[in-house]
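U., I forgot to send this yesterday:
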Amino acid sequence: MTPSVLAYEQGYAIHVNQPGDSLFYHLDYDERSHELNMEFQHFHDFYEICILLDRTAAHIIEGSLYEIQPLDIVLLRSSLLHKTQYPKGAPPKRLMITFAMPRNTPGLESGYTELFSVFDKPIPIFRFTEERRQAVLNPLNEIYAISQDPSALHSVAIHSKFVEFLCAIHRYSAENSYVREETGSSMSQRMYAIASYIHSHYQNELSLEEISKRFFVSAHHLSRQFNKVTGFTFTEYIQMTRIRNAQQMLLNSNKKITDIAAQCGFASFSQFNRIFNKQSGMSPSAYRRRRRSLQHEREAMLVSGRSDGMDGAGENRELT
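Result:
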């Protein structure tokens, strides 16, 4: 498929501010080969959008496998555990967008909450008819054009067009025609189903024996196949999912850390503290203090206009 529907120039990138700022955009026009597939699922504290331009790929989102066609729009909210699998052969072309956007503009809070609701759909992948697709993607093409001729207002213009892009997805979301299809071997499908079950029930007590009975597979076989398919042991995957959710609760709530440990499925606070230190490199209380302090510093810098890269949209041809 020709990439003419969506502007594309391999190795081109557009930046507004820097990752970690309360508002930033990074649009990366590149290609990704099978050899660069990530081994493990991962998550970010920012939003991510992936649009393939040719060939197909697969996304693993919260343990579920989704096949992606060219010009499907994959929306990944912050803290969503995910991984992309690209096929062997010629590397597919893609537009990868990472961004963060303040949603507390006075008078617009409810509107932004509704706008970002598209990221919370049960299946956050959108496939539109050719006519709708062009209407949705046009703002991205305008962002590309704006970046070719930087001005004093191009950061504001890019932000405006990006909001228009999200509004178009929301406007036509009811017309989404994406349907998840079962692919891969039956055993792989079962392992992804188990991973998805873990994401939905991480607050509960989970054991290899209980899950093996629920999904009609021996505990020994489940243990081997789960590691083979996901790259994690059964226990590692449960712990990673629980810690990931605990991190978000630490940042976005004022709940006591002991309560967070219990709500995330840990049998004891000492177990939670030990595993959290191992995965995060610091204690839960230190994580909360450090991340909140960084957030406040970045927001203050953005308000004062001293954030690095405030006017920094343009190209970068050295990305890999």
